[in-house]
Every structure is written in structure tokens, then in C-alpha cells.
Write a structure and sequence with these properties.
This protein is mainly alpha-helical and 175 residues long. The protein is 44% helix and 0% strand. It starts with 64 loop residues before the first helix and ends with a helix.
């Protein structure tokens, strides 16, 4: 059993040292000496250029939206007019934008489209079980959606959008 290693022996000799002699300590590694960096002269801080030499950017004047686009309708009224083509939301410009003829025009057309959409829903429910009835009601619904999207785009652009037959009915609506 002379070749058995002692787990407490750190001498690296595997317990083969002489009895009675303490195990030798392992050699410790020392880091290399650190040499100080040579001192250099402090760098001078850069001086800012005088304020008079810096060019100033030209700031364009603030132009209202109606003047910038060449249309006489303000941005808020355009949003109200566009809201007119979103079903029952057409009531908001009808009730709260009474001073804007532009918003009222689109709101009345939106009201007629909303009534047609409601009637289309009722007819669609009745025709759904008839052959080709569901397809016809779906085509009519897509057409109504396309007309509504066109109305929203025209309203945001500040343009009047006359929907055939619907605009004639809308002119008859008085609030």
C-alpha cells in the first residue's frame, strides 16, 4: 500500500515521501511586476467656437393645414367627415359638427350608407339559405365597404365625394 495516494497530500509525490516528513508546499506563482506608465502632459481642453460663427438654421413659418393643402377645410372637420362613413358613427358629425357644411355633407351621405348597410344585413340574413343568395349579399356588402373606404379617403383629402343616387338622397336629409 505504499503506492496509495493520500487525499490530504498536496506534495504531488503521491504519498511516497519519507515517513515523518511533512508534505512539501506547492510552488506559488507570483504575478509579474507592474511598471508604471510614463507620465504625459495633460491634454488641453478644446475651446468652443464663438456663438457668432455658428450658422443658424432657418425655421419655416407655421402654415395651417388648410392653407398648406390648398383646401378650405380644417383638419378637425376632415376627421369628422371621414368618421361619417363608419356606420353609426355618422351621428357624431351630424350632431357635433353643425357649423361645418363639409362635415355635414359627408355625414348625411354616411347616414344613407349606414341605413343601406342595415337593410343589407336584414336582407342578407333572409337570403343566406337560398342558393347564390349568400354570394349576392356578400358582393353587395363588399361594394358597400369599398364605397365607404372611398368616402373616407375623399373626406381626408378635403374633397366632396358624390356617390351616385346616395348623394341625391342625402341632399334631402335635413337636421
Amino acid at each position: 500500500m505504499e503506492n496509495a495516494q493520500n487525499p490530504n497530500d498536496m506534495s504531488g509525490q503521491g504519498g511516497q515521501g519519507m515517513p515523518g516528513n511533512p508534505p512539501s508546499e506547492p510552488a506559488m506563482m507570483t504575478p509579474p511586476p507592474v511598471t508604471p506608465a510614463p507620465e504625459s502632459a495633460p491634454m488641453p481642453e478644446p475651446t468652443p467656437a464663438p456663438a457668432a460663427e455658428q450658422p443658424r438654421a432657418e425655421v419655416p413659418p407655421v402654415v395651417p393645414m388648410a392653407a398648406a393643402t390648398g383646401t378650405p377645410h380644417a383638419g378637425e372637420r376632415r376627421v369628422m367627415a371621414a368618421m361619417s362613413y363608419l356606420g353609426a358613427l355618422c351621428l357624431i358629425p351630424l350632431l357635433f359638427a353643425r357649423d361645418s357644411e363639409f362635415a355635414q355633407y359627408h355625414a348625411k351621405q354616411g347616414l344613407i350608407l349606414a341605413i343601406i348597410g342595415f337593410a343589407l344585413k336584414i336582407v342578407s340574413d333572409l337570403l343566406w339559405n337560398i342558393p347564390f343568395g349568400g354570394a349576392l349579399s356578400m358582393i353587395a356588402g363588399i361594394a358597400l365597404l369599398v364605397v365607404s373606404i372611398m368616402g373616407i379617403v375623399k373626406a381626408f383629402n378635403g374633397e366632396r365625394f358624390e356617390i351616385p343616387h346616395i348623394s341625391e338622397w342625402a341632399k334631402k336629409v335635413n337636421f
